[in-house]
Every structure is written in structure tokens, then in C-alpha cells.
Amino acid sequence: MIVHSAEFIISAPTLAGCPPSEWPEIAFAGRSNVGKSSLVNCLLNRKGLVRTSSTPGRTQLLNYFAINEQLYFVDLPGYGFARAPRSVREKWQPMVHGYLKGRVSLKAVVWLLDVRREPSKEDLQFLDWLEESEIPTIPVVTKIDKVSRNELGRCLAKISSSTGLPVELLTPFSVLSRKGHAELWELISMALEPDEISDDTNDDSVND
Ligand SMILES: Nc1nc2c(ncn2[C@@H]2O[C@H](COP(=O)(O)OP(=O)(O)OP(=O)(O)O)[C@@H](O)[C@H]2O)c(=O)[nH]1
Ligand SMILES: [Mg+2]
Q: Lower CB count within 10 Å: N or C terminus of the chain?
């Protein structure tokens, strides 16, 4: 997709505060500091559109960005940040679960894992939850510039065995080298157009 326009729309504290679901949307989730906001900036080719930080817990609301006036990206607050104030941690679950469960225009969740970290208990709980909710999930392994090529293979194998996701479903990504940029856009486009694909299938069955 060619990004002609990308603009910040709103930071919503709850599902009720989200903009009208007039466009399809893709959400970005993962533990705090995994690189969600950086990845969104990278996909949109905008350096400072989404605020990033080396301090975990920077994103605390559902942050909406409009792309080409036809699609929303939603940068979700991260989980697993033990040092976040209790009030923030307590709000996280109802906010994110309420959003994922209730947002009808949500087409897929891009779920990020850090290449150098073994998936945590919280990562696995979140994945379980995505699977139970049957939300299409696009798993991305990020910060791959931090490991050598050999290590990358080992890290991907480890992540695959602890999550149960086949290695070929993991998209390696780096905001520094932009590796994975085209592949991830391709997966996002496919998630946005399942209706078209199933319509084609229906047409074929009619013709048969
Ligand atoms: N080397 C490297 N650093 C990265 C990459 N992606 C993100 N980072 C760094 O990781 C840190 C956290 O990035 P953010 O994008 O703010 O992470 P986040 O997941 O949005 O964090 P929260 O909003 O706190 O949940 C920043 O210092 C980024 O510069 C990457 O691909 N490679
Ligand atoms: Mg963030």
C-alpha cells in the first residue's frame, strides 16, 4: 500500500471512546517496549508520528491513526510492565480486552515479540486470548537487527516452539533495516481483503 496520508486521530480510553467504525482497522499489540509504536511509524514511513520511548509503558491509551482516509491503525498499550502504576495496570485489561472483543471493524492484530526474549507468560496468555476470540493474528518478531543471522534462526525456532506457531508464520522485522516492511504490508493487505477472496470463491461455486 502506498501511504499518501497518515494522521493521528484520537487517544481513546475505552471502546466507547473509539471513533465510529467506518473503516477497517488493524491493531498492534505486544508487551511493553517490544517496539509497537516504532513499527507503526516504520510501516507509515513517518519518523515521529507515533510517540516511542525507551521507557516501557509509554503508550497507555488506544491510539488511532487514519491512513489514506480508508483505514485505521491502532497502537495499543503494552502489557507486562510491572513497574507501571497500579492504576494503569488495572485499567489495561478491561480497556484492551473490551476493545478486542467489541470492535467489529477490527480485521487483524499484529502481535509483536522481541527476538531476544523467550515469550513470557503474559505473551502466551495474550496469544491464547487472541486464539479464543478468533481474531486473525499476524505474529511479528521484531528488533532482529540485534542478533546475527545464525542467532536469528535459533531465536525464531525457540519462539516457534514456545508459542506453537510454525516458524513460517513468524515475520522477522527491524525498524532499523526495514526488513519485513514489504512482507508485513502484504499480510495486512490480505487481512483487509478476506471478503474479496471469499466473494471470488462464491462466484466460482455459482459458475460451477
Ligand atoms: N534496535 C532496534 N530497536 C528498536 C526496534 N523497534 C523498536 N526499538 C526500540 O525499542 C524501544 C521501545 O520502542 P517503542 O516503539 O516505544 O515500544 P512500544 O512497544 O510502543 O512500547 P510501549 O508504548 O511502552 O508499550 C525504543 O527505544 C525503540 O527505539 C528495532 O527494530 N530495532
Ligand atoms: Mg508504544
A: C
User: Which amino acid residue places its CA nearest to atom 11 of ligand 1?
Assistant: 54
Closest to 112 measured CA to CA, from 140, 136, 87, 84? 140
Identify each DSSP E strand in the chain by its residue range. Answer: 6-12, 25-30, 62-67, 71-75, 106-114, 137-142, 171-172
Domains with residue ranges and CATH for the chain: 6-182 (3.40.50.300)
CA-CA distance, 68 to 43, in Å (whole number)?
Answer: 13
3-state secondary structure 102-117: HCCCEEEEEEEEECCC
Q: What's the CA-to-centroid distance between 80 and ligand 1, angstroms? A: 15
Distance CA 155, CA 115 (A): 6
pTM: 0.91
Q: Looking at the CA of 52, which ligand is closest?
A: 1
Distance CA 39, CA 118 (A): 20
80: left (phi over 0), alpha (psi -120 to 50) or beta: left
For ligand 1, pick from 38, 51, 146 the residue to mutate: most ligand atoms within 8 Å of CB.
38
Residues lining ligand 1, Cβ inside 6 A: 30, 32-38, 52-54, 56-59, 77-78, 142-143, 145-146, 174-176
Instruction: State the residue for C-alpha cell 498492534.
Output: 28
